[in-house]
Specification:
By secondary structure, this protein is of the alpha+beta class. The chain folds into two domains: about 90 residues, Calycin beta-barrel core domain (Lipocalin); about 130 residues, Nuclear Transport Factor 2, Chain: A. The protein is about 15% helix and about 45% strand. The strands form two sheets. The protein has an eight-stranded antiparallel β-barrel. The two termini are about 20 Å apart.
Length: about 240
């Protein structure tokens, strides 16, 4: 229901007439038909059922007794309408959507998907040492900002194929916004001492397209200063639970 475009105004053009719809809330819709035998303005109580893939079944009953069910498909820009009129006539129509005012809030599930993509990549490559995951998760023209690693995913695949069995990555806090993801982790076996690392990725077309990183040797908290550790593998889980 978070993806139902509340506030959106749109013109739906059917073969024989056009109607303007305003999605006032998840429980009310306003329609306006300016011309023809169906011309009128009315606000109706609606029931909305998500169908998946940005499609919704929206049903209502009008003052004159007409009942309407719309399948509003926002991926394809179509409304499939099924209406029973007061005289018993049944209409099946498909109309095209033209948005005249966008929704109050545009849902964006990219951060959640991108977060899962980055976690999959880091654990596949640096926990399981699965070099085959590079082609699945990284873009063909992968950009690398670490000056010690060549460009492209072939170089990355070569690194994973030659990793020491002692290399192991622990993910921690993950922050995702838009097409960017930052992950805080610890990697052992990469250097003489454990390294705490922040990796930043840009996602494009469902794959990792660009990468930056900053590494620092892990230093234990100083005795007597009540300092916190540089890395806690549970920090990501605690944030997610909150």
């Amino acid at each position: 229901m978070d993806h139902f475009p509340v506030g959106q105004q749109m013109d739906v053009t059917y073969p024989s007439f056009k109607v303007s719809l305003t999605l006032q809330s998840v429980t009310q819709l306003r329609f306006e038909i300016k011309e023809g035998s169906f011309a009128r303005i009315e606000t109706v109580d609606i029931q909305v059922e998500p169908l998946g893939n940005s499609s919704f079944a929206v049903s209502w009953q009008e003052k004159d007794g007409a009942t309407v069910t719309n399948v509003q498909d926002y991926d394809r820009g179509l409304v499939h309408s099924f209406a029973t009129l007061p005289d018993g006539q049944f209409l099946r129509m498909t109309g095209t959507i033209a948005v005249t005012r966008p929704a109050d809030r545009t849902p964006d599930d990219r951060p959640q998907r991108n977060r899962a993509l980055v976690l999959d990549a880091m654990t596949s490559l640096f926990q399981r040492h699965d070099a085959s995951a590079v082609d699945r998760l990284y873009a063909d023209d992968y950009i690398q900002h670490n000056p010690n690693i060549p460009q492209g995913r072939d170089a990355l695949r070569g690194i994973v194929e030659t990793l020491s069995p002692s290399v192991n990555y622990e993910p921690g806090l993950i922050i995702a916004e838009g097409d960017l993801v930052a992950i805080h982790g610890r990697i052992r076996g990469w250097a003489d001492v454990p390294q705490v690392v922040v990796d930043i990725f840009r996602v494009e077309g469902g794959k990792l397209a660009e990468h930056w990183d900053v590494l620092q040797a892990e230093v234990p908290p100083a005795a007597g200063l009540a300092g916190l550790s540089m890395f806690d593998p549970e920090e990501g889980a605690r944030r997610a639970a909150a």
